[in-house]
Amino acid sequence: MDLSIKIRNKILPNPVGVASGTFGYGEEYAPLTDLSALGAIYTKAVTVEPRPGNPLPRLVETTAGMINSIGLANVGTKRFLSEKIPFLNTLSCPVILNVAGSLEEDYAEVIRRVDDQEAIWGYEVNISCPNVKKGGLAFGTDPHQVERLTSSLRQLTEKPLIMKLTPNVTDITAIAKAAEQGGADALACINTVMGMSVDIHKKKPSIPAVTGGLSGPAIKPVGIAAVYRVSKAVSIPVIGLGGIMNGDDAVEYLLSGASAIQIGTANFVDPDTSSKVLAGIKAYMEGSGFSKISDFHGYF
């Protein structure tokens, strides 16, 4: 059974990664799960300068999910290189750096500063965050900006470049095609869905930012539909995420066109979800007579 997935010139050992923003920089989860068994760690977002993030509270639980408005709080590139890279250098699993910014040049500067680090397997470019006022979602909703940003970042690195797409658009395939045209090696879809919760007792929004990103089981059908549509529209690998809680959820994504998946909100419920999802994928492959990940594709 071959569980590997090729993206550009590199190989993910298996299709199960852990999503950015739900797994810190890996070290936080080291006592709780076997990091060496992961297909990839997609790190918490890194921006050029440190970001304090949005006002507290930043999380609220909702029916079948949660809303977050973290605001890309992170340590910045300088502290990332001094405080986080030493641990990441010890890992055997691929480490994919999630890159964010407010301006196109911010994305480029992060990659310039970290590209010589051997620990960094590749990049996941966050053009789809719904809880920051500048950058993120603004880039991800305009095909022309997506193509231009992807093309400019492509010139800075030979490492795999994964563009993370937002579902908060009319036609996600137009954004996907623009990223592919710009030189993306893979696409991750989806990021969180714009959502809002109201505290009826306080008679105001549950979080100070008012709106945020909805994740968890509630958005799984949205994610699967996006993966299906995007995988039909492009020729590069698609990485599916959104509401995956178990092996069966992951199989739905794989059958719908995903080449790999990411575990997000489920990490907060059970830090060892990734290993259980991988076991579920293997069991399904054995029962179906599949020998490689591409065997999932082409049924519909």
From TrEMBL:
Its cofactor is FMN. Residues 3-285 form the Dihydroorotate dehydrogenase catalytic domain. It is found in: Cytoplasm. Pathway: Pyrimidine metabolism; UMP biosynthesis via de novo pathway. GO terms for molecular function: dihydroorotate dehydrogenase activity. Its main location: cytoplasm. It catalyses: (S)-dihydroorotate + A = orotate + AH2. Coiled coil: none annotated. GO terms for biological process: 'de novo' pyrimidine nucleobase biosynthetic process; 'de novo' UMP biosynthetic process. Substrate binds at K44, N68, S69, I70, G71, L72, N126, N191, T192. Catalyzes the conversion of dihydroorotate to orotate. This is Dihydroorotate dehydrogenase. It comes from Oceanispirochaeta crateris. The lineage of its organism: Bacteria, Pseudomonadati, Spirochaetota, Spirochaetia, Spirochaetales. The gene is pyrD.
